[in-house]
Specification:
Length: about 500
Amino acid sequence: MDLSNNEKRMLKALHSESSKSWSLDELLASCGWDDQAHVAGAGLALSEKELVSIEEIKSKSWTLGPEGVAANENGLLERRLWDWLISQSEDSRSMKDLQSSEIASKQETGVGVGLLKGLGCELTQGSFVLPESIDAVEVTLVARTSFIEQCSNGASEGDLDGELLTHFRKRKGLIEAVDSTERTWTLTDSGRKIPDSILEERLQVVEITPELLQGEEWRTADFKSYDVNLDAPTPVGGRAHPMMALIERIRAIFLEMGFDEIDGDYVQTAGWNMDALFIPQDHPAREMQDTFYLSNPEEIEIEQKHLDDWTVIHEHGGDTGSRGWGGQYSTDESKKGLLRTHTTVNTIRYLAETPDEPCRVFGIGRVFRKETIDRTHLPEFHQIEGIIMEPGASLPMLVTTLKTFYEKMGYPEVRVRPAYFPYTEPSLEVEVKWRGQWLELGGAGIFRPEVTEPLGCKWPVCAWGMGLERLAMLVLGLDDIRQLYISDLEWLRNQPLL
Ligand code: PHE
């Protein structure tokens, strides 16, 4: 049996007279406590263990109200008036005499006259006439006075005279009712059977401290058990936003797979964002309604060498074996400033810088497209971009890399399907299985010669670009992409740590 020290002490006290019903005061005295909360607490715990039964007797008692306290000190109003009245000669018992006597205040006089009448006095032509039996009045007054005295210590209703109680209840402020409950504690049969030998009080350890463990006392101590099922407040401290946490995790995975991180600017030229990727200048995605073109800077310079190269490639394919897109290439179009529409612009610019060094690089960055905001679209979102350029870089290597990444993210089922991008051949769509459904998360492929040759790339380039928010929706189980950015504190607090 798991008993606290207080419970043990109380049981011991009860055992000393094991069939008696104990009052609060008796238990306080016997246990040596001065706080009745100990008796209440230990008693309740013991009754829950069915070792003690508690009996409650509800009772009503009466104490003095504010007027009653005054009356107990200075005498009841009728007592004071009566004493004055009988001490006056017959011709000076008038209302006037009373008012000038200072026996009662102005307000009291009104009530007082009523009380005197109640005692049998009469008021005739402004003068009081005493009742026949003065002794009877005296008896009444003595009884009323002692009633007030009785209440001054709190008197239970049963002990009070019923008639007087009715009388005083009608008078304002003299007495007040108090409802009280008295409890008694009695051992039950199983309480009586508890052997005294287990009632030794022992050190109760609630918290384990180094000091405790350095001593010897813990060896014989009782350890308070923890209830791990109890509700506890969830600490709310600062923490990373789920998107930041997700980015960190993705970053860690690519770094672990041997990739270096690259970065780039939001503001780019149409040349680098599109022309370098062999996206034809009349491609619908380049229209104003899809891309944020800038009015400042409206135009950004591009090295002439690149403009020349792209002109050749776009118009007739140069010596890549391609026939190009035909038509007339516009270098004005290339120089237009815009907000990057994909992070492929970062990898392509990286390749332009170091076309003759093998590389594995990735970047996570924000991109901008003129999308109408809805459940699955935002005009600003993030992409997870990457390339591998090295001797022997191939489609299987690309697919394995993406599969490995998603597997590390916790999505082992990945498949690729043929797709089309102007800058890759072959091109893939990457899909991940989530809750039984295949979801498209991004595009990938091998950069076309029209892209790599003008830059002077030495080896084949595997490339991919995947949606970060799409992935976040899977990881966080969202069906509305907007939830990620509305700063809903309640939701943010309740997100699992990634
Ligand atoms: N840039 C493409 C997009 O935004 C993704 C992609 C990147 C496709 C690299 C192929 C190669 O959807």
